[in-house]
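Consider a protein example.
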Amino acid sequence: MKRLLIFLCLLLAACTLDLKPVRMEDLRSDSITVSVEGEVEHPGTVQMNLYDTVDDLLNEVSLTEDADLTSLNRQMMLKDRDVIVIPEKHEKENPVVSVNNAGAEELTSLPGIGKSTAEKIIAYRTENGRFQTIEDLLNVSGIGEAKLEKIREFISL
């Protein structure tokens, strides 16, 4: 009797429910709201589709000339109420000089490197090939530990 009563209750509950199949189109039509700030012409909120990415958002907004997209993960999926900040490009105050590619003029822009030392760096890499490490500069006549430490933050390979 107990089982019959439970069956009837479940049958009655099932008859009163309005069960509809879920359509995938209905899920895709849902939208999310994302805030975009920083280097965009019109900061504010943007309506995006569910499952859109940062790349999709970038196609919807107008960026300024100073926008720097290098730090953004363009494949990241957006969520409702996300805030995406487009950073500004920052020019380096002291550009890095490649000791493997720089000419004499660029090398002399380094602190403590004159024309003579710049020519020695170029002569060394011509004779011995490209520098493999920054410390290889110690093999150049006129560059010691103190001078290397002075220019280390301004150079690269």
Residues 97-156 form a domain with the DNA polymerase; domain 1 fold (CATH 1.10.150.320). The chain has two domains: 28-86, 97-156.
